[in-house]
Amino acid sequence: MSGANDHERSSDPERPEEPGQAQQPGRAGAAPGDRPGRRHPWLTAIVVFLLITIPAGYLVISALQSRDSGEEKQENASATGLTEDWPSKVQRRIYDVWIPPWSREVAYYETNSWKTSTMYVQFLTSPEGVDRYLKDTLHTDSRALVDGKVPVNEAEEKAAGWRLDRGEGWSGLTVDQKDPEPTVDVAVQWVDARHRMVYIVSTITP
User: Fold this and answer.
1) H helices within 125-166, ranges in order?
2) Which of 11, 34, 122, 182 has CA atoms 20 to 30 A from the CA of 113?
3) Sign for the pseudo-dihedral over CA of 141, 173, 125, 87
4) What is the pLDDT of residue 206?
């Protein structure tokens, strides 16, 4: 009978374990030799690896981006010469440059510094186009053009990439305006009876 009673007591779910057989709190079902804090050593290794490599990767990417940005800025700063296109409407308004419709060989170049900002513009138009530009934008007319005058200096020619022959068939003028309005140099080459090649250097001094 005592054996039966012992069996009944050992199978009772409410009965605590015998002394020496009690499990540690929170360690139910733990495998032998499974120590706390060392359950997954491979996970710790991965975490350490990521903590080291991810910041290093960000540093490399950041350095490459900074280098590319610096090279791009250097290329832009060293670029010289005209771009075969029309300047934007904002640029034309700021620099008092109006380009007649149907003009050809249109090109421009802009430079900026803490002292001055300059726009170089060229276009091929008709005598009427030249006169309209002078009247509507600079408030003068073709009669103000001085024969033989080319107000564009050699440094400005070099900056824009122009080679003005300065021979016969040239006229020009300089329009000085109050700040912040630009000073505008206009050189006109008489290509033939129907066409004029116009070179403009408009300079703003803050």
Assistant:
1) 127-136, 154-160
2) 122
3) negative
4) 75
